[in-house]
Design goal:
Blueprint lengths: L4 E8 L2 E10 L2 E6 L19 E10 L2 E6 L2 E12 L2 E8 L2 E9 L14 E3 L4 E6 L6 E2 L4 E7 L2 E6 L4 E5 L6 E2 L4 E7 L3
Antiparallel strand pairs: 1-2, 1-8, 2-3, 3-4, 4-5, 5-6, 6-7, 7-8, 9-16, 10-12, 10-15, 11-14, 12-13, 14-16
Amino acid sequence: GRPGTQRLRLRTTNGSSLIAVSGTPAGATVTVDAQVAGISEPAEVEDAREPRDYASAIHRDGDLWRVDCDGIARHWQVETVDSRRGTDVIVSSDEGTWVLHRENVVRSAADDDGSGDGTLTSPMPGTVIALSAADGDRVEAGDPVLVVEAMKMEHTLRAPTAGVVEYHVAAGSQVSTEVALATVVPDED
């Protein structure tokens, strides 16, 4: 199948951007200021910017990450740290250092990229490092269901709807892109 799309919001002291990443680390499309259908929070004025797509690739280069973006290569030092607010990503290069606060964007099951069946899939190859509920637990829309670590970043997958969690993997499982990790069986109306 086609690689999944991960949506997140990166916040800095200067504002925030909606980011959509699809593809693999070796060949991804990154859309900055993406328009996200079914967003669970009210649209903000800053979301009205025109989206821009970037052809990107990321590779480990010693202690640094090499990011090729639209044919321009840059080297970055990347560190993730847990904070009271969640996960912060510190990126540094010769151009400066930025602290980004990462928030996954919760989408509704009606989002055009979603399966609509409550299935959560891995955004990229990685390792399941945590199950946030027990199999059979009831969760609300937006609740964390599990965490996948990929490329030294943690990706929290959240319930697209209220319902009961059914896990298809265990903590420690190695997973590839688009593998069904859990299903949130929606509440019956």
